[in-house]
Amino acid sequence: MTTVGYLPDDERYAAAAAALGAGPVRTRRFLEGWEPAEAWAALVAGRHPADPDGAYRTKARPPLVDAVEARCARAGVAVHILGRPGYPASLAADHEAPGVLFSLGDPTAADQRPRAAVIGTRSATPYGLGVAAELGRGLAEAGVAVVSGLAPGIDSAAHAGAVAAAGAGPPVAVLGTALDAAVRLSDVQLQQAIADTGVVLSQRAPGSAGAPAWCFVVRNRLMAALAHVVVVVECHRTGGSLHTVKAAADRGVAVLAVPGSVRSSASAGCNALLVDGAAPVRDVQDVLAAVELAITGRPGIVAPRATAPTPAQGGPVPDTPGPAATRTLEALDQDPASLDTVVRRSGLPLSDVATALEELAAAGLAAGTGGWWRRNRA
Amino acid sequence: MLASIPSATLHGVDGRPVAVEVHVSGGLPGFTVVGLPDAAVRESRDRVRAAMSSSGLAWPKHRITVNLAPSGTRKGGSGLDLPIAVGVLVAGGTLPGARVEGTACIGELGLDGSLRPVPGIVPMVAALGCRRVVVPVECAADARLVGGHEVRGVASLGELVGALTGKGPWADRVELPAERRVLPPMPDLADVRGQTVGRRALEVAAAGGHHLLLVGPPGSGKTMLATRLPGLLPPLRQQEALEVTRIHSAAGLALVGGALVERPPFRAPHHSATEVSLIGGGTAWLRPGEISLAHGGVLFLDELGEFPAVALDMLRQPLEEGVVRIRRARRAVDLPARFLLVGAMNPCPCGEGSTPGACRCTDAARARYARRLSAPLLDRFDLALSLGRPEVDDLLGGPRGESSGSVAERVRFARVVAATRGVRCNAEIPPESLDQFGPLSADAAALLERRLRAGALSARGLHRVRRVARTIGDLDGTGPVVGARQMAEALHLRDAGCARAPGASS
């Protein structure tokens, strides 16, 4: 096999041990105090003390070593062993750091940077996606590394914002799946863009199919371990983001939450966090202040907040809308409303509202998807 | 001795005349039925024999052969009991042949000699060319709907023999009093609180015959709206009413008060419906399916996503042609199936997917749900609406909406306007005539162009939107040109994108 020699021997055997599919704690015990080659030999022979009942012996077959190395070579993945040079310093000190870590990009990119995790639900509202992208961009521009999970929804939006900023803050993505598991083109492209300027991490060996639910719990824990602050943008009452919040609380990492409408179920988790004492996030300045506080122990000096322009002052309105359009615009806000709701709020007949919405959409003042309409930010 | 009694069997929704020939000859006593009878007809041998003995009539102690002519086609149903019995009586010499001259018989016999109703009496009687028709008394009113025959309803074989031999009178029952023909009231649109857009869509669907898709979470009033659609449709015209009555009779549905079906039917099959029950067919006589029973009215498919995908895709051809052509190896029928399709579905398995950010389904579950409906089927809905749950204020204290009666008046007017274009409703305007019947104003054309350029409208969708805009213009009485207001409203009434582009959460 031509890929032999891609990895040094130690990393070959460590990667193979991680590919057995054991949890992060057991993987760590496979390697702690062992030379990787010896640990592997003990696993193959079924006499490793961390595998007392030989459960991993059937999986530990000698060809696995080459197979994992070939997978790493094909995807360009680097292997890091806990306690050795190259392992991300930001993670090495954590008490639950995985024994073996796989990476794409520069694993040390974020070590010297302030880091903020921006996370949230997969089924996000346009409001949440907009805020996530805005925070991602603002944090990256301020030199903060944006940590997220690259899941659809909030995670991807935050990363897309960070990548688009092309600022000083390198993006950091932590995956629950293996690094070569992305299938959708948009996921692959975003992952590549993150690896170009930052790093994509996973504790799961390349070639591992799928990911059991615990992999995402581990992923969430790693994000909390990496970040100086955790920002939850949108989260349902029982969302997976709460795993990250719990892990952050265990580590004393500050949790911030973006408030949302009390009627939006996608904000129910965030609003509950605020009640429980999470700091509210209005804009990127709030996050930067919290990062500053987390790193220095002192409240940061934040530039005085500029008064936000209200939509009415927000520049000239193209094609001054007619009275029906004005009333329709007043009936819209930034939460999507069904056509029926817009008609009821405006008190206008449907044909007037329909015409007005077309005008507003053409002028860029309103946007609609699937029969739900909202006001664009001025 | 030979006798031939005219009768009929069902074939799809049509009657087929059948001559029941009975021959009684010397030889060992026996009873055979030939001429491709099905199981129900073969069993009639035993019913006929028992019925005659219960009625005190002698069974000829000879060899009896019954032939059902034309003998090449398969015959089914129990309606041939009576003609077989009468034929045996004539051929056996009990009844003089002259007495039954020009008399057709249809009916099922009970073992006690009583006569039982059979389905499909209307098309079967319509297929008969003779002067007099004897039917079970319960079917007499239905049989009279056909007109042109002297219809005799009898309750038992004994009564019929008495009347034919002149020993007793025709025991014609008194005509049913008029009040039995009063139909139950239909649900009124005034009961619907809020739902301005849903009500408008219903009105447009009724006026233009546009298929309607309602997408919304549980409890958003999809079923409530759909059940009020038939009340907005104009009553069936004479020709349609006859057609619908024949179909309903053929399927064995009770005709209310023995009158023509004048109210547009409303059929709402459960989503466990099989393909044959929806489309029609089956072994007995190619029974009309739900789509034919909804002919002239509304076919409401609640929980559209739960129907078998194969069955739904079978709707596509009838939706285009208004007729379903059922072909089997031995038989072929064309069943009328011109109906207004109303589909209702949840946006996703959890039901909350139409509200942005509220859905808790996985991407895979949403994609699986969306795959159940094929794009060609979705494309056939002219109106697609995303419904939200009604506001609490509307439910508790909101004003009653406009009643079905006044909306139906506008619908009737719009249909009259549509009729001047030579079509039954605007949904049937051919694409090439759209420019003639619904020319676009410059604003409306610009609006359409913007949607087309944004890729939000397909070529087929373009025609459908133009037809809907034409209907809106007819309803509002805005003249021959379709303006921007009508076009904008038409575009917004087919905006329920969740069903079309699942997973697009942003």
Explain this structure to me?
The complex is a heterodimer of chains A (378) and B (506). Chain A is of the alpha/beta class and 378 residues long. Helix content of chain A is 43%, strand content 12%. Chain A has helices at 9-18, 24-31, 36-45, 63-75, 89-92, 126-141, 154-165, 185-197, 213-226, 241-251, 268-275, 284-296, 323-331, 339-346, 350-362, and strands at residues 78-81, 100-105, 115-119, 145-148, 172-175, 199-202, 229-232, 254-257, 279-280, 337-338, 366-369, 372-375. Chain B is α/β, with parallel strands linked by helices and 506 residues long. Chain B has helices at residues 39-54, 81-91, 121-126, 140-144, 157-165, 196-208, 222-226, 238-250, 275-279, 290-293, 309-313, 316-321, 363-371, 375-379, 392-397, 404-419, 434-437, 442-453, 459-476, 484-492, 497-500; strands at residues 2-11, 14-25, 30-34, 63-69, 103-105, 108-109, 115-116, 132-136, 150-154, 212-215, 266-267, 280-281, 287-288, 298-301, 323-327, 332-336, 340-345, 383-386. In chain B, the strands form 6 sheets. A 5-stranded parallel beta sheet of chain B has the order 11-14-17-10-18.
Task: List the defining traits of the structure above.
heterodimer; A: 378 residues; alpha/beta; Rossmann fold; Arc Repressor Mutant, subunit A; nine-stranded mixed beta sheet; three-stranded antiparallel beta sheet; 12% strand; elongated; B: 506 residues; Ribosomal Protein S5, domain 2; 2 domains; five-stranded parallel beta sheet; four-stranded mixed beta sheet; 18 strands
Helix content of chain A: 40-55%
Q: What's the CATH class of the domain at 115-176 and 211-296 in chain A, please?
A: Alpha Beta
According to CATH, what is the class of the largest domain in chain B? Alpha Beta
Global shape of chain A? elongated
Topology, element by element:
The complex is a heterodimer of chains A (about 375) and B (about 500).
Chain A: H1 9-18, H2 24-31, H3 36-45, H4 63-75, E1 78-81, H5 89-92, E2 100-105, E3 115-119, H6 126-141, E4 145-148, H7 154-165, E5 172-175, H8 185-197, E6 199-202, H9 213-226, E7 229-232, H10 241-251, E8 254-257, H11 268-275, E9 279-280, H12 284-296, H13 323-331, E10 337-338, H14 339-346, H15 350-362, E11 366-369, E12 372-375
Parallel strand pairs in A: 3-4, 3-7, 4-5, 5-6, 7-8, 8-9
Antiparallel strand pairs in A: 1-2, 2-6, 10-12, 11-12
Helix pairs in contact in A: 1-3, 1-4, 6-7, 7-8, 9-10, 13-14, 13-15
Chain B: E1 2-11, E2 14-25, E3 30-34, H1 39-54, E4 63-69, H2 81-91, E5 103-105, E6 108-109, E7 115-116, H3 121-126, E8 132-136, H4 140-144, E9 150-154, H5 157-165, H6 196-208, E10 212-215, H7 222-226, H8 238-250, E11 266-267, H9 275-279, E12 280-281, E13 287-288, H10 290-293, E14 298-301, H11 309-313, H12 316-321, E15 323-327, E16 332-336, E17 340-345, H13 363-371, H14 375-379, E18 383-386, H15 392-397, H16 404-419, H17 434-437, H18 442-453, H19 459-476, H20 484-492, H21 497-500
Helix pairs in contact in B: 1-2, 6-16, 6-19, 16-19, 18-20, 19-20
